[in-house]
Amino acid sequence: MATLxxxxxxxxxxxxxxxxxxxxxxxxxxxxxxxxxxxxxxxxFEEANDLLEQLELExxxxxxxxxxxxxxxxxxxxxxxxxxxxxxxxNSAAYNIDEDMSYEDWGPSSPRQQLLDNSERLERTGRSxxxxxxxxxxxxxxxxxxxxxxxxxxxxxxxxxxRLRETDEQLSRSARLMNSMVVRGLQARLxxxxxxxALGLLATAALYYSVT
Length: 212
Hints:
Layout: H1 2-28, H2 31-60, H3 66-90, H4 111-211
Helix pairs in contact: 1-2, 1-3, 1-4, 2-3
Protein name: Vesicle transport v-SNARE N-terminal domain-containing protein
Organism: Plutella xylostella (Diamondback moth)
Family: Belongs to the VTI1 family.
């Protein structure tokens, strides 16, 4: 489950970075490009919302409150980006600048500053992706160690099972030997009883002949 949540988080980070990049292009694009970008951004918002819903479902079954807290933060970030998109749409006319205008002439609140902000967001997203990839590698390493441990335990169980079979065979042989010894003892007792009976009969016969 943790790996699936990390995958959703990485997909969300990539999608958010894509939306942010398109919003930056929306601010400086012409009318045709803004119309196309607006449609793409709206579709991306729907995809991001669906992704967050999947993430929330998975987070509910995850242990601890960390996953739920991250999901809430992602939801707040998505709302902030959506609000920024709405502001850009409402102020789109203010961003029809001359293509020959120098970038040095843009003020702090100009599209240049917005692009710088978007670059910072992209860098943060990249760091988040790097951290997520590091966590994924660590999870893969732990999984490999668990598989090795399970393999070793399986070999131990197989050896124990083999020794158990050998012990069972030895017990079966011992039981057969004991049964044979018991039968032989009974046979010896029966033979001895027959001898005593024969001797008694002989003694009785000798006594009878000696008297008569």
